[in-house]
Amino acid sequence: MHIVQVGMEYDVLKENNRIANSNYRLLKENGIKTIELMGSIGSGKTALIIKLAERLRNKGLNVCAIAGDVTGEDDQRRMEGSGLTAVNCNTGHECHLDANLVKKCLDKIDLDKYDVVFIENVGNLVCPADFPLGADYRVVVISTTEGDDMVRKHHDIFLHSDVAVLNKMDISDAVGVDPDVILGDYRKLTGGLKTMYTCSVKTEKGIDEIISVLGL
Question: How many folded domains does the chain comprise?
Answer without folding.
Answer: 1
